[in-house]
Write a structure and sequence with these properties.
By secondary structure, the protein is mainly alpha-helical. It has eight helices and two strands.
Length: 170
């Protein structure tokens, strides 16, 4: 597949997910009504299945497909929670792109945390919120919480307190 076709397909996925989230109320999948969860899951699975095929050509970096499409590939991987093999593949390829300086380390950190949570491990960067209790986000467990902001800074993520404040505004 040429880069222009790949770009168009990924941008279409981004548009479909954006429309879906707007129509179904956005937010965490678990907090949405049952019909919305089913619809989201169906779209997320279909997109992840296709992303797995598209990744045969390597990670779609912004210099190849543009910022919107590259971010869309990451977003599809993030939402592929029921397809851990797709997330692991995306994590490996995105990691290679980050090592070459061709993809954002923040995206790699968020996907790494997502995979860790799905696998039942402690997350590294504190990007995944489990719930909101009494108006406060509750993170999934984090490895070495005392050095969390230090690790976040190494990949260009803002301090946790700022992240959580933004999370509540979203």
């Amino acid at each position: 597949m040429d880069d222009a076709s790949l770009r168009a397909e990924l941008e279409a996925m981004v548009g479909e997910q954006r429309e879906l989230m707007a129509r179904t109320g956005g937010g965490a999948v678990e907090q949405a009504p049952v019909d919305a969860r089913r619809e989201r899951r169906a779209v997320f699975v279909r997109h992840a299945d296709r992303l797995e095929q598209l990744l045969a050509g390597g990670w779609p970096t912004a210099d190849r497909v543009g910022e919107v499409a590259a971010r869309g590939a990451w977003l599809v991987a993030q939402h592929a929670d029921t397809q851990l093999s797709v997330q692991r593949l995306a994590l490996r390829l995105l990691g290679e792109a980050v090592e070459r300086g061709r993809a954002p380390a923040q995206q790699l950190a968020m996907l790494d945390d997502r995979v860790a949570v799905t696998e039942g491990r402690h997350q590294t960067y504190g990007t995944q919120v489990a719930d909101v209790v009494d108006g406060r986000p509750v993170l999934w467990p984090v490895a070495d919480p005392g050095r969390l902001d230090e690790r976040r800074a190494t990949v260009g993520l803002e301090p946790l307190a700022v992240h959580l404040a933004r999370y509540l505004q979203a």
